Amino acid sequence: IRCNTSFSYETEVAYACLNAFSGSLSVMGSSVVVYMIMNRRLKKLSRVKYRLMLAMSTIDVLNSCALAISFLPAPSVAECSFGKGNFSTCNAQGFFLQLGLAVPAYTAMLTLRALGSIVYNFTEKEIARKFEPFMHTIAICPMLGIAVAGAVSGMYHSDRRHCYITNKRVFSRVGIKGGDFGSGRWILITSVIWFSVMGFIIALSMVKIYLTTRQRAKMMRKYAFVSKGRQQRRASKIDRAANESAKQTMMRVLAYILTFSCQFTSIVFTSHMIRSSPLLFLATGVLYPLQGFWNFLLYIRPKFLAVRSQHEHLSVIRILKIIIY
């Protein structure tokens, strides 16, 4: 069977290698987060934030493993195929790639938890009792259901690259038929809507948190009726806290945009010039698997900055060892 491709053999190989490298970074990042939480589980698992982080990182390990092995699970059904697997391994990879879209939903749930705590003053117990069960249900059940439906229906396939809902292919020998994106077009549309909605929730929640933090900082400076020296120090601490909140907010939104922007562009825009762009293709291979790595950096960043401010002479590796172990 012959297959058409918009990219050269070298570009396809480069994509696979970059994808495997980024996926491996994400596997390591999410695995470290899981280790850090479980290593202090008696303390951390008593809080909603870390239970959500544990679920998110566990799913991302599975998703990132599926991305890191790149084209290997795909069956060799065409001259241009790189795969070494079969239809069962291909279906399994597609399942975990689809399940991985629960990670953006967990990121959204984490921002909603912060929104409830910071903006609306819900206590930890109130969030755990009233909202946490719904957070887990909303985050995982839709994508788990779609992943199962796609796997049971055999919608995940590929002549090369990852096994997922692919472009129009007709393989008479193996029985894969369908229009654009085959019979799984609804999965693709649902997935695009899903991570778009989650991205909107993350951005809106983060902006609201930042604005509330800034407003409270101004109020505290206004009503801090203490001596001038102490007032200036207090105002300085408030400003630093507000600025740090703003940085963390913007970096989380930026990480989400970096992860999904190229993939979103290649799916939504049907222009041949866009879809056949090697630069966009390779950028997608680098950025899309990195969501677990970004989550790791955002998770350790506050602790890293705190340790470095107290021990400026320590190297980055030494600080990371202190934080992780």
Write the layout of secondary structure elements.
Layout: H1 9-39, H2 41-44, H3 48-68, H4 87-99, H5 102-118, H6 124-152, H7 185-222, H8 228-268, H9 272-275, H10 278-287, H11 291-310, H12 316-324
Helix pairs in contact: 1-3, 1-10, 1-11, 3-4, 3-5, 4-6, 5-6, 5-7, 7-8, 8-10, 8-11, 11-12
Descriptive labels:
325 residues, mainly alpha, 0% strand
Q: What structural category do the secondary elements indicate?
A: mainly alpha
Proportion of strand residues: under 5%
Inertia-based shape: globular
Give the termini separation: 52 Å
Number of helices: 12
Note poorly predicted spans: 170-180
Number of DSSP E strands: 0
Estimated radius of gyration: 22 Å
Explain what this protein looks like in three dimensions.
There is one protein chain. With 325 residues, the protein is an all-alpha fold. It is 73% helix and 0% strand. The protein has twelve helices and no strands. It is globular and about 70 Å long. The chain starts with 8 loop residues before the first helix and ends with a helix.
